[in-house]
Amino acid sequence: MSMEFALNSRHATVFQNKNGVREMESMSYHEEGPRTWHRLLYPSTRPSLARWAPIPLRLIVGYGFMEHGFAKAARGFDAFPAILSAIGLPAPHLLGWLTITVEILGGLAVLLGALVPLASIPMAIVLLTAIFTVHLPYGFSSIKLQAITAAGAQFGPPGYETDLLYLACLLTLVLGGSGPLSIDRFLAKRPSGRT
Question: What's the predicted TM-score (pTM) here?
Fold first, then answer.
């Protein structure tokens, strides 16, 4: 037994198998305008909107890195290197200032969409170093609510979740591009001087 039905320009053939269960045999879709379910659910079918997707990633990653760099620098010239020394990293002053520089300048590069593939390399190194030297022993979760006291919420040490999110965002920007309103896009559209 077979029956056909049509629903909003979609066509399907349904039949009843040996066990009496209805199954769909074939289905075809005929897109008839911009408001179909497929266009609403999948941004890749909305190229006019999908091209803007990198901008929120650039804003949060760029600002986040810059904020962390400025916070380290604001504590004084020796505060962050002292932390690196306490966890046993070699050349703590050199690594401390390299980290602060990468966070501020790399964050600015991502924020502006400038040379993102190049800037992402040292930024990923900073994140991987943070994962393996600080966050890994505390597990995945970055938010560990310990208690609520009169002074407010008390949290435990953060895990590596946020570092992985930053790495995923950087990888997405490297693979997918910086998007519109970026220096990378401007440089790509600029005509080369070669003939």
Answer: 0.72
